[in-house]
C-alpha cells in the first residue's frame, strides 16, 4: 500500500490538521478506526509495519492493533526480502501468534531461523522453506506454545538431531502438515497429541544420481507414528511407486488400532493403488467403529466393493470419489441413501466418474445421456453444496424441458466453485429457436494492434462484451443462477496436458468430444456475468473461432486473478490471439496466467499486450512447436516489475532457451529475490529433471495443469 506524503503534513502529530475534508471528499483519517482497520487488513504485513506505520501517529497505533499483528501472512509476498523479514520479526515478533511463510523458498535458512523470536506462536507454516534438522530443532525449541505446524522433510533429515526441548514442543502439537521429499516418518512420531495429520508425498523414485529409493529405509526406524487422538487423516500422493510404498508404512500403524475420534479419512492417489491386508483391516475397522464426516479413497479400493454400503456418516461435509467406477445407482443407494438430507455437504468431487449420473448398466457407453432423475436426487439432497467437480467425463443431457444438467445445477445457488466438462454445457441438440451467434459488439484487434469493427450493437448496451444474445442458452441460465461463483472450470472430457507430473511431455492428445463442438464464443461470453469470478480455466474448446467471448470476460470479470487457457480452437492454428490481447488489457488484477496452446507465437505483440496486466506475478506458457522472441521476453520482464515466475516451454532450441534464461536471471535476480525462471524445450528428454527444481508452490499452482475444484476438503489448512 502506498500512501501519498501530502496527505500527512505533520508526521509527528496524531493526525493532519483538519483531517475532515479535502478538495474532493473525506480525508482517509476521517474514517472510524473500525473502517481503517478493515482497510489496513488488506495491506501486506511487511508494508504495514515497515512503511504505513511510519506515516503518522494515528496509523502507527492502528498498525500495531492486535487484529493486524496476531496473524502475519508472508506467502506469495514475493517482495519480502531477507532484511525486511528480519526487521518485521524484530519489530512485532512478540505479538505474532499465527505466521505463514509457506512457499518462501527464496529466504535463506538463517532468515527462517528468526522465527524462533516469535515466542508466542501458536500456528506456523514453514512449508517450502529451507530448514535443516538442526535449524528446525532450534526454532521449535523456542516455541513452547505451538499447536499447529507445517514443514517439509527433505533428504538429509535426521530426527535424532532434534533436541529434547524441540520434542517437547512437538508433543503438544495438535495439527501437522508434513510434505515428504524423502522416505521418512519426519516428526510424526514426536507428535503424540496429533488430532489432524496432513501428509503430502512428493518423493521421486530416483535420486539425481540415478539411485533407486525405497521405503524400506524407514523400517529400521525405532519411532513410529502414534494416532490415538487423531480426528483427521489426509494423504496426497504424487505419481510414483515410492510414494505408495511409504504411505503404506504410515497406514500400517493406523490399521493396528483405528482412532475412536476419527471423522475424516482421505487418501488422494493418482492411478491405481492396490489394497493390502493392512488397508483392508483398516477399512473394516472404520466401517465398524467410526462415523465419518469426510471420505476419499483410491479408486481401486472402491471399485467393485461394497465398502460404501457399510460406512457410517454423521454430518458429512466432503466426499471425493474421483476416478472411481461409481454408477448413479450406487451413488444414490450407498451415499445419498435414496435421497436423505445431506445439507451439511459442502464439497463433492466426482471428477472422472464416467457413470456417476447414469443408471446401473453394463451396456452403457460413456457418451450416452445421463439420467436426469439421478442428478435431480443429488441436487435435492445436497442443496448447500459450495464446491462441485464433474469434470473428466462425458455428461450429455437428454432432451426434454428441465432435464438438462445445467438447468438442474442452477438450483445449487450456494455454489462457489464449479468444474464441468465442456460437452455438459452444450444444449441437448441444435435448436432452431436459438438466436444466431453474433460476434463481439465492440472493436477487437485483428492480429496485434490493428482494430476493425466486426459487429453491430444488437442491444441497449453496446459495451456489454457479450458475443451475442444468450438467454436461451442453458449455460447462460446456469451462470445467472450462481452469481457468486468464485472459481469456474470448463475442461474438455478428453483433454490431457502436454506436461504430466513426473513424466515426459505428451506428444499427442485425444480429439475433443463431438458434443463439445457446439460450445463456442457465445458460451464463453456468458461467463462475463460472474462479477465475483477470481479463477477461470478453459481447456479443449474446439469451436472457439475468434475468441470474442474472452473479451467479455476481461471487461466484466474485474476480480479475475488467475486464468488458465488450453487448446482453444483448432490445434493447427491460433485464431484467438487478437481477442486475447484485447482481454488482457482489462485484467488489471490478474496475477497468474497459464497458457497451453500448440503453435503459439509468443512474439513482441503478445508480450506487449501482456504487459498491461500490471499485477501479473506468474506466467507459464506451454506450446508444442511454439516460438518465442527473446527480446520481447526481456522487454516484458522489464516492464512488469511484479513478475517473479516465468516458465516458457516451447519448440525453441536448447541453446536459445538457456541463453534467454541466463539473461533473465542476470538482469532481474538481484532486484527480485523470489525470481524463478525456467525456459526449456517442451519435448526435450531432460524436461523431467528441470521440472523437479521448480518450487512446489509454483509447480502445483501454475506450471502443471489440473482441476482444483473440490480437490481437497474446504478449509483443510489455512
Q: What can you tell me about this protein's structure?
A:
With 718 residues, this protein is an alpha/beta fold. Helices cover 27% and strands 17% of the residues. The chain has a 20-stranded parallel sheet, with helices on both faces.
The parts where pLDDT drops under 50 for at least 5 residues are 1-13, 15-23, 430-466
Number of strands: 26
Mean pLDDT: 88
- How would you sum up the global shape? globular
Could you name the CATH homologous superfamily of the domain at 476-503 and 511-702? Ribonuclease Inhibitor
Instruction: Give the N-terminus to C-terminus distance in angstroms.
Output: 24 Å
Second rung of CATH, namely the architecture of the domain at 476-503 and 511-702: Alpha-Beta Horseshoe
Q: How much helical structure, as a percent, in the residues?
A: 25-40%
Q: Can you tell me the CATH class of the domain at 476-503 and 511-702?
A: Alpha Beta
Organism: Delphinapterus leucas
Protein name: F-box/LRR-repeat protein 18 isoform X1
Domain F-box/LRR-repeat protein 18 LRR: 85-675
Domain F-box: 33-74
Amino acid at each position: 500500500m502506498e500512501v501519498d506524503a501530502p496527505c500527512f503534513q505533520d508526521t509527528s502529530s496524531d493526525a493532519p490538521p483538519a483531517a475532515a475534508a479535502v478538495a474532493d471528499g473525506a480525508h482517509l483519517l476521517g474514517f472510524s478506526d473500525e473502517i481503517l482497520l478493515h482497510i489496513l487488513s488488506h495491506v501486506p504485513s511487511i508494508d504495514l509495519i515497515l512503511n504505513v506505520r511510519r506515516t503518522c501517529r494515528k496509523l502507527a497505533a492502528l498498525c500495531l492493533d492486535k487484529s493486524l499483528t496476531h496473524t502475519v501472512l508472508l506467502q506469495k509476498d514475493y517482495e519480502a526480502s531477507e532484511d525486511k523479514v528480519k526487521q518485521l520479526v524484530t519489530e512485532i515478533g512478540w505479538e505474532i501468534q499465527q505466521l505463514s511463510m509457506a512457499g518462501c523458498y527464496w529466504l535463506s535458512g538463517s532468515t527462517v531461523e528468526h522465527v524462533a523470536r516469535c515466542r508466542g506462536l501458536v500456528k506456523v507454516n514453514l512449508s517450502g522453506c529451507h530448514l535443516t534438522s538442526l535449524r528446525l530443532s532450534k526454532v521449535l525449541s523456542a516455541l513452547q506454545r505451538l499447536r499447529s505446524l507445517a514443514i517439509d522433510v527433505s533428504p538429509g533429515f535426521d530426527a535424532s538431531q532434534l533436541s529434547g526441548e524441540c520434542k517437547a514442543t512437538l508433543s503438544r502439537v495438535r495439527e501437522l502438515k508434513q510434505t515428504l521429499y524423502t522416505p521418512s516418518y519426519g516428526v510424526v512420531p514426536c507428535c503424540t497429541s496429533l488430532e489432524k495429520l496432513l501428509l503430502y508425498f512428493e518423493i521421486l523414485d530416483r535420486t539425481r544420481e540415478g539411485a533407486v529409493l525405497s521405503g524400506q529405509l524407514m523400517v529400521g526406524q525405532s519411532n513410529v507414528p502414534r494416532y490415538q487422538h487423531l480426528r483427521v487423516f489426509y494423504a496426497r500422493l504424487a505419481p510414483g511407486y515410492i510414494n505408495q510404498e511409504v504411505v503404506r508404512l504410515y497406514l500400517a500403524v493406523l490399521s493396528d488400532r483405528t482412532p475412536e475420534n476419527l471423522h475424516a479419512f482421505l487418501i488422494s492417489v493418482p492411478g491405481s493403488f492396490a489394497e493390502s491386508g493392512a488397508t483392508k483391516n483398516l477399512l473394516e475397522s472404520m466401517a465398524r467403529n467410526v462415523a465419518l464426516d469426510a471420505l476419499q479413497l483410491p479408486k481401486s479400493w472402491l471399485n467393485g466393493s461394497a465398502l460404501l454400503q457399510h460406512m457410517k456418516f454423521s454430518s458429512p461435509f466432503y466426499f471425493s470419489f474421483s476416478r472411481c467406477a461409481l454408477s448413479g445407482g450406487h451413488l444414490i443407494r450407498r451415499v445419498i441413501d435414496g435421497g436423505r438430507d445431506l445439507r451439511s455437504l459442502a464439497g463433492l468431487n466426482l471428477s472422472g466418474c464416467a457413470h456417476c449420473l447414469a443408471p446401473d448398466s453394463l451396456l452403457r457407453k460413456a457418451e450416452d445421456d445421463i439420467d436426469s432423475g439421478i442428478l435431480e436426487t443429488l441436487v435435492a439432497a445436497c442443496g448447500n453444496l459450495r464446491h462441485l467437480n464433474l469434470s473428466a467425463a462425458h455428461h450429455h443431457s437428454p432432451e426434454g424441458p428441465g432435464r438438462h444438467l445445467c438447468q438442474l445445477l442452477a438450483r445449487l445457488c450456494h455454489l462457489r466453485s464449479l468444474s464441468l466438462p465442456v460437452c455438459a454445457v452444450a444444449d441437448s441438440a441444435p435448436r432452431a429457436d436459438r438466436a444466431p451467434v453474433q460476434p463481439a459488439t465492440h472493436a477487437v484487434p485483428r492480429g496485434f494492434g490493428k482494430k476493425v469493427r466486426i459487429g453491430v450493437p444488437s442491444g441497449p448496451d453496446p459495451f456489454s462484451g457479450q458475443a451475442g444474445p444468450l438467454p436461451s442458452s442453458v449455460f447462460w441460465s446456469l451462470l445467472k443462477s450462481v452469481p457468486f461463483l468464485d472459481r469456474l472450470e470448463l475442461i474438455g472430457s478428453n483433454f490431457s496436458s502436454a506436461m504430466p507430473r513426473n513424466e515426459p511431455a505428451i506428444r499427442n492428445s485425444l480429439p475433443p468430444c463431438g458434443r463439445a463442438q457446439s460450445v463456442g464464443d457465445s458460451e464463453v461470453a456468458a461467463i462475463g456475468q460472474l462479477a465475483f469470478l477470481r479463477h477461470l480455466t478453459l481447456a479443449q474448446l474446439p469451436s472457439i473461432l475468434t475468441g470474442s467471448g474472452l473479451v467479455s470476460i476481461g471487461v466484466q470479470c474485474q476480480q479475475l486473478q488467475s486464468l488458465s487457457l488450453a487448446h482453444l480452437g483448432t490445434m493447427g492454428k491460433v485464431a484467438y490471439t487478437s481477442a486475447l490481447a484485447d482481454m488482457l488489457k482489462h485484467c488489471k488484477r490478474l496475477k497468474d496466467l497459464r497458457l497451453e496452446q500448440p503453435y503459439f507465437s509468443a512474439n513482441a505483440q503478445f508480450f506487449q499486450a501482456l504487459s498491461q496486466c500490471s499485477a501479473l506475478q506468474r506466467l507459464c506458457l506451454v506450446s508444442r512447436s511454439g516460438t518465442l522472441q527473446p527480446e520481447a521476453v526481456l522487454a516484458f520482464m522489464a516492464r512488469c516489475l511484479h513478475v517473479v515466475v516465468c516458465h516458457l516451454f516451447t519448440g525453441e532450441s536448447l541453446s536459445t532457451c538457456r541463453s534467454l534464461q541466463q539473461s533473465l536471471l542476470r538482469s532481474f535476480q538481484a532486484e527480485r529475490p523470489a525470481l524463478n525462471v525456467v525456459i526449456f524445450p517442451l519435448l526435450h528428454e531432460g524436461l523431467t529433471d528441470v521440472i523437479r527444481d521448480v518450487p512446489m508452490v509454483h509447480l502445483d499452482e501454475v506450471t502443471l495443469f489440473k482441476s482444483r475444484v473440490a480437490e481437497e476438503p474446504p478449509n483443510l489448512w489455512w
